[in-house]
Amino acid sequence: MAFEELLEDPVIQKYLHELVGPKGMPVAAAPPDGEVTDEELAEELGLELNDVRRALFILYENDLATYRRLRDEDSGWLTYLWTFQYEKIPEQLQEEMHRLLDGLEERREYERENEFYLCEHCGIRFEFGEAMEFGFECPECGNQVETMENTRLVTAMESRIDELRDELNADVDVEA
C-alpha cells in the first residue's frame, strides 16, 4: 500500500491519532518525503517545537520514524534528520488486533469462571470471595450486594471475539 493510500485509510488515521494525540496528528498525517528536521516541521506546520518533538519521538518508539544525527562542526550542536516509515503500520495494526483478541479471550474466561455481586447503590462489583468477606454487604455504603448476571457482557465479548477472528482470519476458538 502506497504512503498516500495508508494515510487516507480511516483506521490508520485513528491509529496514528491514538499514538500521537491531537497535537501530534499534523506531524503524523503529513509526513514529508525524505529527511526533515523537527524545526522545519514545526515551522512548516505552525506547531510548537515541543509538540513536534513529542510526536516524532512517539513515532520513533513505534518504529514509524527514524532519525539520523549530524553534528555541526563549528557549534557542536546536533541536528536530527527524521524520516517517516509508515510501511509497518498494517503489520502493527494486525499485532494490536491479536493483542486485543488475546485480552478479550482472557477476560471472557475470567467473566465465565467467576461469580459476581453488585452494589446497586455504589455500582461496585465484587467477586464471590470478596462479597463473602464483606458478609455480602457493600463496604462503602453497607447495602446488601446482589448476584450480578454477566451473560450479556460475555455474549458481547464473544461477538467481538468472533468479529476480530474474522478480520484476522484466525482459527476458531475451541472454547467458545
TrEMBL record:
Family membership: Belongs to the TFE family.
Alphabetical keyword list: DNA-binding, Transcription, Transcription regulation
GO biological process, one term: regulation of DNA-templated transcription
Protein name per UniProt: Transcription factor E
Pfam hit, one: TFIIE_alpha
NCBIfam families given in the database record: transcription factor E
Domain HTH TFE/IIEalpha-type as annotated: residue spans: 8-90
Gene3D superfamilies: RNA polymerase ii, chain L, Winged helix-like DNA-binding domain superfamily/Winged helix DNA-binding domain
SUPFAM superfamilies in the cross-refs: Winged helix' DNA-binding domain
Protein source organism: Haloarcula vallismortis ATCC 29715
General function of this protein: Transcription factor that plays a role in the activation of archaeal genes transcribed by RNA polymerase. Facilitates transcription initiation by enhancing TATA-box recognition by TATA-box-binding protein (Tbp), and transcription factor B (Tfb) and RNA polymerase recruitment. Not absolutely required for transcription in vitro, but particularly important in cases where Tbp or Tfb function is not optimal. It dynamically alters the nucleic acid-binding properties of RNA polymerases by stabilizing the initiation complex and destabilizing elongation complexes.
Complexes and interactors: Monomer. Interaction with RNA polymerase subunits RpoF and RpoE is necessary for Tfe stimulatory transcription activity. Able to interact with Tbp and RNA polymerase in the absence of DNA promoter. Interacts both with the preinitiation and elongation complexes.
InterPro entries according to UniProt: TF_E_archaea, TFE, TFIIE/TFIIEa_HTH, TFIIE_asu, TFIIEa/SarR/Rpc3_HTH_dom, WH-like_DNA-bd_sf, WH_DNA-bd_sf
Alphabetized GO MF terms: DNA binding
